[in-house]
Design goal:
Elements lengths: L5 E9 L5 E7 L16 E4 L20 H12 L4 E4 L13 H18 L3 E5 L11 H17 L3 E4 L3 H6 L3 H12 L6 E6 L16 H14 L4 E7 L3 H10 L5 E4 L5 H6 L7 E4 L2 H16 L3 H18 L7 H11 L18 H13 L6 H14 L4
Parallel strand pairs: 3-4, 3-10, 4-5, 5-6, 6-7, 7-8, 8-9, 9-10
Antiparallel strand pairs: 1-2
Helix pairs in contact: 1-2, 3-5, 5-6, 9-10, 10-12, 11-12, 12-13
């Protein structure tokens, strides 16, 4: 894959510490469409939603969703063979964000769109409808069952999301094992369990009954062994490449690892000759076209081609997910706006200002260098508007 062609157009961008520089734009790369799911790896993007920003609302309080724009973006992902992990963290679901009522509609519409496109789909089931500040374990299981039932009624497999209620209610690792055993017993198709680390959500410290990730791993491995026939896999979101490789060696062979490592996904997806990870990644939201070319190469047996293509996207991904990693959602929405997929960059939580103008400028430049902007002139125009509002011209 060659470097995208340089255009004559340039834009002034800020430099960290002061000053500016000229950035010369790159032509859009015509990444081939690949509407069929990939066969060498299961690939899901945790995708963002589009806010109906023209409505009267308070961000984070029943923020209205532009359902048409949201589903249109999913169709864009499907056209590149990227499946959808619906109603996950990238959709800003959770405290201060999208609630269960909206998540239900998102799952209904997203699963229907995936079915129409012949795309792969899984959907998040959690406990975020609970209003009791101190729920019992039984109440948590019932909440999981309610969401699981809805997901399965739509015809989707479930991703069992980490529960903020559970981390508060559980007194031991045995409580976690009991809850997951009871929840997974109700699945009608193999599910994915999400192990979400504190790098993405510090409020989940102590999940699985331990602060130490290695002690937590022992619990997750035991959970997987006890429920292997009901598991598609574990989504591992701890941002530790070596630890993920160790973890997947510990799991039953039938239980896959779905990497959530948005820094080191190339090596994890490629594998070590014995085991490899599959993909359930927020970064696939903005890099779907280039990732599609990578997975197509892997399907064709071209491992070196896969590595070369995917590694090109790593610098942008590292910038997008720099600490605090959970703020990557700002970048996904911002890039969708720069790319012309939506006409604003408002967010469900109102957190669009939670990244610096320097960060957004760097993400813009790195994305442009990949030729990922369908209309580079539009992207530059919109970036210039933001910079002007920040006093940078």
């Amino acid at each position: 894959m060659t470097t995208p062609e340089l255009l004559r157009t340039s834009i002034t961008l800020p430099v960290a510490g002061g000053g500016t520089r000229r950035h010369q734009l790159h032509a859009a790369v015509d990444y081939p469409r690949h509407p069929a799911p990939f066969v060498s790896r299961s690939v899901f993007a945790a995708a963002h939603v589009v806010v109906d920003h023209r409505a009267e609302y308070q961000p984070g309080v029943d923020t209205p969703i532009d359902w048409e724009g949201t589903i249109a973006f999913r169709k864009h992902l499907f056209s590149y063979g990227i499946g959808i992990a619906e109603a996950m963290d990238t959709s800003e679901r959770g405290p201060g964000g999208m609630g269960w009522t909206q998540a239900k509609e998102l799952i209904r519409l997203g699963v229907a769109a995936a079915k129409d496109a012949g795309a792969a789909v899984v959907s998040g089931a959690g406990t975020d409808q609970l209003t009791d500040e101190n729920p019992s374990l039984d109440a948590i299981v019932e909440a999981y069952h309610e969401q699981l039932e809805w997901v399965q009624e739509q015809g989707s497999a479930a991703v069992i999301r980490a529960s903020h209620a559970l981390v508060g209610a559980a007194k031991s690792e045995d409580d976690y094992l009991e809850v997951y055993r009871r929840v997974l017993a109700k699945t009608d198709k193999p599910a994915i369990v999400h192990w979400l680390g504190t790098g993405f959500d510090p409020t989940l410290r102590g999940y699985w009954g331990h602060d130490d990730p290695r002690q937590a791993m022992e619990v997750v491995v035991r959970m997987a062994e006890e429920n292997a026939d009901r598991l598609m896999g574990i989504k591992f979101s701890l941002l530790d490449e070596e630890f993920e490789m160790e973890f997947r060696r510990r799991l039953p062979e039938s239980v896959r690892v779905f990497t959530g490592d948005d820094y080191g996904y190339t090596n994890l997806l490629l594998g070590d000759g014995e085991r490899h990870s599959h993909g359930l990644l927020g970064v696939l939201d903005p890099i779907a076209p280039i990732a599609s070319s990578g997975f197509a190469a892997l399907d064709a047996g071209d491992e070196s081609g896969f590595a070369e293509i995917m590694n090109r996207s790593i610098p942008m991904a590292v910038k997008l997910f720099e600490a605090p990693a959970d703020r990557y959602k700002v970048g996904t929405v911002f890039l969708a706006w720069l790319s012309g997929f939506q006409d604003h960059y408002r967010m469900v939580t109102g957190r669009e200002g939670m990244r610096s103008i320097q960060h957004l400028s760097d993400v813009f430049a790195l994305t442009d260098q990949l030729g990922l902007f369908p209309d580079p002139e539009l992207a530059a125009h919109r970036m210039a508007l933001v910079l002007k509002a920040e006093g940078i011209e």
